[in-house]
Amino acid sequence: MAKFIIDGKKIEAENGATVLDAARENGIEIPTLCTHDEVGSAGACRLCVVEVKQGNRAKIVASCLYPAEDGIAVDTKSERVMAVRRLVLQLLLARCPGSGLIQDLAEQMGVKPEPRFTADTDKGKCILCRLCVRTCEQVVGVSAIGFSFRGADKTVGTPFHENSQVCIGCGACAYICPTGHIEMETTKTGDSRTIWGRTFKMATCKVCGRYFAPEDQLKYISRTAGVPLENLAVCISCR
Ligand code: SF4
User: Fold this and answer.
1) Fewest beta carbons less than 10 Å away: which of 35, 104, 172, 178?
2) Would you kindly state where each structural domain of the chain is located, as residue ranges?
3) Residue closest by Cα to atom 4 of ligand 1
4) Measuring from atom 2 of ligand 1, which residue has the nearest CA?
5) pTM score of the predicted model
6) Record: fold of 2-117
7) pLDDT in 10s for each residue of the chain, 239 residues
8) Ligand 1 mean position to 167 CA, how many Å?
9) What is d(CA 150, CA 7) in angstroms, rounded to the nearest whole number?
């Protein structure tokens, strides 16, 4: 057990816990956009910065990666912390001016677009949190998407932004995306879904007859889990 302090409150945390884990356990809110229970933390968005003091030293760290250690004192809202968070939001706002989530966070923190950051960096609503990439790799097990280019030009997508032959159209990447950057469209009848530029035929539930999952996704589950395809032909509601 590590014993330490967050915002003046004495905290005990399990060995291996991060400062963010410990804060959440104790009802202390720290904003983050790139942490999710299913895929863990990546230190990508930097919104979760906190100030850690040990003896005479103080440093700004990403709380999602920093271990909860004995004897440290953590400040989640110091002036330094808030200044870094505002700067992070300025950069996110410059990159994703059309994201409602970023706009809301910026408004809550009194951050307005600044001309020095409003270069030609608009990349839709992608904040480079990597949640979609990690979900596809760690949860779905497919690794159909990744990042291309560097710096301000960095974008997420399929290799060479061409139709991926390994993508199964499950939509997990779109569901987990915090800003709604990933577009997934389903036809009115529900018979097909388009994501990452590829259209997937949907399978019907053999009980209720509704379209419920891409055929490619069911084939993938059948292949990897060793379950006969016919056993997967029933939607969750009818199981
Ligand atoms: S839709 Fe494709 S890219 Fe997105 S999580 Fe599923 S397999 Fe990966």
Assistant:
1) 104
2) 2-117, 131-238
3) 173
4) 167
5) 0.90
6) Ubiquitin-like (UB roll) (3.10.20)
7) 999 999 999 999 999 999 999 999 999 999 999 999 999 999 999 999 999 999 999 999 999 999 999 999 999 999 999 999 999 999 999 889 889 999 999 999 999 888 777 655 557 899 999 999 999 999 999 999 999 988 878 899 999 989 999 999 999 999 999 999 999 999 999 999 999 999 999 999 999 999 999 999 999 999 999 999 999 999 999 98
8) 5
9) 37
Q: Report the separation in Å between the CA atom of 135 and the middle of ligand 1, taken as the mean of its atom positions.
A: 8
Length of the chain: 239
CA of 33 to the centre of ligand 1 (A): 20
Instruction: Using the mean position of ligand 1's atoms as its centre, give its distance from the Cα of residue 85 in Å.
Output: 31
Choose which residue among 162, 165, 167 to substitute to test ligand 1 binding: the one with the highest number of ligand atoms within 8 A of its C-beta.
167
